[in-house]
TrEMBL record:
CDD domains in UniProt: PLAT_repeat
Lineage top rank: taxon: Eukaryota
Taxonomic placement: Eukaryota, Metazoa, Chordata, Craniata, Vertebrata
UniProt domain PLAT: residue ranges: 1-105
Pfam family, one: PLAT
PANTHER family for the chain: OXYGEN-REGULATED PROTEIN 1, PROTEIN CBG12474
Protein name: LOXH1 protein
Gene designation: Loxhd1_0
Length: 178
């Protein structure tokens, strides 16, 4: 449910002005804004010089209008430069902070964009997972080696004996997806 059927709009800002709000209408894909898909749009505008920010959002209409946006890359056909705007957040009234529009600044290539992207992913993961660590929750992790559970109790006790039963009825698996 990370894609959207809502109308998506973008404003691009550069040293010479901005595009104004533009609806992203025609993707090179038959169906746009699907989960895991990269969409490519052509937006006609005067040359804005070096880009520094975008504002991107949607109108919140349609079924399943929430949208998880990874990043936006704008290729300047005149200078052949790519401008990357990292997001890694939901644009959804029912997720994250409830905003359906985001202002994103350009990623400065001289500051290791890979590290910035990693930090944003870490923050996104913590925002999504921190509820598990609220007071009163018992966490259980499945140990694939022992085929048992490691439990972290609200009173700070750790049961790492590898009991094969789910004692508490709550189970949270942690894994890494590639």
């Amino acid at each position: 449910n990370a894609g959207t059927e809502a109308d998506v709009y973008i404003s691009v800002y550069g040293e010479r002005g901005d595009t104004g709000s533009r609806q992203l209408l025609r993707s090179q894909k038959p169906k746009k804004f699907l989960k895991g898909q990269t969409d490519i749009f052509a937006v006609e505008a005067v040359h804005l010089g070096h880009l520094y920010k975008i504002v991107i959002g949607h109108n919140g209409l349609g079924s399943g209008n929430g949208w998880f946006l990874d990043k936006v890359v704008i290729k300047d056909p005149i200078t052949d430069l790519d401008y990357t705007f990292l997001c890694h957040r939901w644009l959804d009234q029912g997720q994250d902070d409830g905003n359906i529009a985001r202002e994103l600044t350009v990623t400065d290539a001289s500051t290791f964009p890979g590290r910035q992207e990693l930090e944003l992913k870490r923050e996104e993961t913590w925002a999504a997972e921190k509820w598990k660590f609220q007071k009163g929750n018992t966490l259980q992790f499945y140990n694939r080696l022992t085929h048992g559970f490691i439990c972290l109790s609200p009173d700070s006790r750790v049961d790492a004996l590898g009991d094969k039963k789910n004692k508490y009825g709550k189970l949270f698996f942690m894994w890494k997806c590639m």
